[in-house]
Model the fold of this input.
Amino acid sequence: MVEQHATTADAHSDMDLAEHEKTYHMFLGLVKYGSIICILGLILLAVLTL
Done:
């Protein structure tokens, strides 16, 4: 009748940390370069409209 639930450490022990870190770094790079492109686009629009 009593169900045993996995603890947080047990539930996440099968995660591939190397793959997780690789994905996280890719996400950070996309955010960084995406932000830079957006800012440069705004600057370009501001310069062209003057």
Remarks:
- Residues 9 and 15 are 11 Å apart (CA to CA).
- DSSP finds two helices and no strands in the chain.
- The mean pLDDT is 87.
- The two ends are 74 Å apart (CA to CA).
